Amino acid sequence: MYTIPNDKRHFLKAKIINGAREYKKYLIDKDFQIICEDGTSHIVRFFKADFLHLTGIRTDLSEDNFFMNSVHGILDVSNIKEEQKYNWPTLKSKAVRIEKIHKILYENVKNSLFMINLHTNTLAFPVAIKNSNIDTCVGFIGNINKARTLRKYNNSNDADKQNRIVAILEKKQIEGEYNKLVYITSVKELYEKKPDVIDCIAEGLRERLSYIV
Question: Is CB count within 10 Å lower at the N or C end of the chain?
Answer without folding.
Answer: C
